[in-house]
């Protein structure tokens, strides 16, 4: 929890600073979206301590998958529906900005997957 939280906190701060320095008017919406998307990817990655997200067991938890799909749809609504933009003070993102947010938000997922791989391959793994 500490290392993933620290990693993601650092990533969000650096991404926010980068978006701001680039002069993007939507930088706050981009940081907000990156944070929301990262929560979804981390939820998927952390559903098992050992099994990879990319294992055949991916579809064994339908409620989790539906929660991610619904959350993704709600986040996109907050970004793109004008009446929700007013409530949440967001702005519509371009395709490039959205793709960048989605890509950055997966860094935690890749870190968790790397940790699983390391624990499975390392000398300290549990013997069956």
Strand content: under 5%
Low-confidence stretches: none
Overall spatial form = globular
Q: Approximately how much helix is present in the residues?
A: over 70%
Provide the succession of SSEs.
Answer: HHHHHH
Largest sheet: none
Structure notes:
With 128 residues, this protein is mostly helical. It starts with a helix and ends in a 7-residue tail after the last helix. Helix content is 71%, strand content 0%. Helix 1 (2-21) packs antiparallel against helix 2 (27-45), helix 1 runs antiparallel to helix 6 (107-121) and helix 2 crosses helix 5 (95-105). The chain is globular.
Give me a quick take on this structure:
The chain is mainly alpha-helical. The chain has 6 helices and no strands. It is globular and about 50 Å long.
Descriptive terms for the model:
about 130 residues; 6 helices
How would you summarize the topology of this molecule?
Elements: H1 2-21, H2 27-45, H3 62-80, H4 82-88, H5 95-105, H6 107-121
Helix pairs in contact: 1-2, 1-6, 2-3, 2-5, 2-6, 3-4
């Amino acid at each position: 929890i500490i290392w993933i939280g620290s990693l993601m906190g650092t990533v969000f701060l650096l991404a926010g600073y980068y978006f701001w320095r680039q002069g993007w008017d939507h930088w706050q919406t981009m940081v907000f979206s990156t944070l929301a998307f990262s929560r979804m990817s981390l939820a998927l990655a952390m559903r098992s301590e050992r099994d990879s997200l990319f294992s055949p067991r991916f579809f064994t938890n339908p409620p989790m998958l539906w929660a991610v799909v619904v959350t993704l749809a709600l986040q996109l609504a907050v970004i793109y529906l004008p009446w929700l933009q007013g409530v949440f003070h967001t702005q519509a993102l371009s395709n490039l900005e959205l793709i960048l947010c989605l890509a950055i938000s997966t860094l935690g997922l890749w870190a968790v997957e790397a940790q699983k791989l390391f624990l499975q391959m390392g000398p300290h793994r549990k013997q069956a």
